[in-house]
Amino acid sequence: MAESLPEHDRILQEIESTDTACVGPTLRSVYDDQPNAHQRFMEKLDACIRNHDREIEKMCNFHHQGFVDAITELLKVRADAEKLKVQVTDTNRRLQDAGKEVIAQTEEIIRCRVQQRNITTVVEKLRLCLPVLEMYSKLKEQMNVKRYYSALKTMEQLEHLYLPRVSQYRFCQIMIENLPKLREEIKEISMSDLKDFLESIRKHSDRIGETAMKQAQQQKTFSTALQKQNNVNYGRNMHLGRSRILESKNDITLKRTFEDDDEHEEEVLTAQDLVDFSPVYRCLHIYSVLGDGEIFENYYRKQRRKQARLVLQPQSSMHETVEGYRRYFSQIVGFFVVEDHILHVTQGLVTRTYTDELWNMALSKIIAVLRTHSSYCSDPDLVLELKNLIVVFADTLQGYGFPVNRLFDLLFEIRDQYNETLLKKWSGLFRDIFEADNYSPIPVANEEEYKIVISKFPFQDPELDKQSFPKKLPMSQSVPQIYIQVKEFIYASLKFSESLHRSSTEIDDMLRKSTNLLLTRTLSSCLQNLIKKPHIGLTELVQIIINTTHLEQACKYLEDFISNITNISQVTVHTARLYGLSTFKDARHAAEGEIYTKLNQKIDEFIQIADYDWTMSESDGRASGYLMDLINFLRSTFQVFTHLPNNNNDHAAMSGKVAQTACMSACQHLSTSLMQMLLDSELKQISMGAIQQFNLDVIQCELFASSEPVPGFQGDTLQLAFIDLRQLLDLFMVWDWSTYLADYGQATSKYLRVNPGTALTLLEKVHRGMKDSSKKNNIFAQFRKNDRDKQKLIETVVKQLRSLVNGMSQHA
Question: Is this model's pTM higher than 0.90 or not?
């Protein structure tokens, strides 16, 4: 028990000195102690409490007097406090009365401050909204004045910069909803403007192309004039005197060219002047901003391809006038000028690849169209105009960077057609010249007329120059006229060769080829047709032969003429030659052949009127009338040949040769015709009187041949044409069959030219004639009795002749 008392003191001490929160463990220790510890602790606690109460009482007793003094002082203060309270209450009342106005002012100030704050807030919000409203108003104004690209930029600013700041307001939502609609409206409007633009350039393509072609032509004219000016300056030191004249002339020409260019400079408009390109720029920018640039490019290219096909489709009557071709080329040039402009002022809308592809397509179509329509052109002037248009067309587009080599290749095809139209035209000119010619030598009365003729045609004849006037030139009027027309043809052909960007050698070659065509085809055909015409007589044919000789000699002057205008020497290796030599030789041969043909035809006409009585008993004693007429005709004809002008030795030799050949041909044809008359299968019998009459006619033919109707035959050359007839008739007239049969096959035979078959045919006809004559005279019996030996002789000769004929057949 004694041990537990100190423990309780310790616990009490801890309770007094420890925080209330920490008392628990201490109190728990009371219950953990020995039994009845709690009771003892409570007793100890009570004792502790009594001790403290005694200490408190002691302390109160010690301070009681002071407390009483303090209460006394407090009571004294109470009265003062009441007075003070009244004063404070009065002061508070007066203060409240005075503060009511202040409160009212304060409340007014508070209200004003609230309003001011609200106003400030509104101003701040309005400051945020005003730019939005201003931009939207600006957008509307831009839409009204059709500044759609700027309107899209304004929309972009509204969406990304202004509207997000005030997106909580309802009017902003309305604006946001309207912006896509405005974009679609802008797209539709810009697309409508683009369609109007496409329609506009379609309508103005011809004017744009015409302007571009005019500018290209003026540039070419200017360059040509400038080149001439430079050439004059270059040659000034070499030929000073002559160059001053040329220089002054070229200065005037160049000055006029400059003046013309200045005059046209104000009139000529560019593509930008004729067409407003702003719609396509606008539409391109708008679609680019909207992200639909590719859609716009595809649409634009698709529409332009459609327009290209329309432009490339020609009118059906385009080939009839040059204006049709000019309009067609102007539209195409205008189309590609616009595309070239779009290519250079925009990025991506039109590419070089696209334009090249479009041009290649167009070029193929253009070439096909020109091939077709040019084939309808029959007027060389129209073809030449077409060529000039194609050259200007090609030069214009080449200036814009388009390849045009295929167009110049096409011009070579058109050149062939141009030559064909020229050949047709000159064929008519040649026919007219030949129709108007009198086919007689050209008479010249004096020196002036002679100079006029030789100024048109290069004629030289020293022998003729020595003769006095009046005199005659050997050729007819058609010769100088043909020569002049050939030169005109060369000039016309040269016109097409100009501006083809070809060398002088190529141009020279083209001129020579076309001239060869003129000579070998057109002129040759006209000569051949002329020779075949019925109204062309023998005299005209001889004159044609003389004319062709002079034209042939003039070919070398035509070659010099071509060399002079092309500045290409004839010694050049690749220089072609004119084929006039063969052309005129062929014409001469044809004329000679026609002379022989006409003579033979005339002979046939006389032969056809022959009226022999093949059953006559004896001849008339004179030649037949038709044969004498024929011989007189031949004699007069050959006299005409020999009286042709022989001023030139060549002409004399030629006319003599033609006359000799014609005379020989006529005699041979006459001999053949007479032989065929005897051997005609329809002629069944011939009397000896008819043989005698026929012999008289052949004698006249031989007399004609021996009379030398044409000089120059040697000996009896011409008489040999009738040798077959002569030997055959002699055989029957002499009745020398034994000699014929004995000498047959020998070179020395008297009847060497008598064919057994011919002799057999004629003998059978004579035999039948004898029999028929005996029957008619009713003395057949007497004939049998008196001429039995002759009859047997004829039968024997017939058998022997047949055996010879059969032997010849077997041998053959």
Answer: no
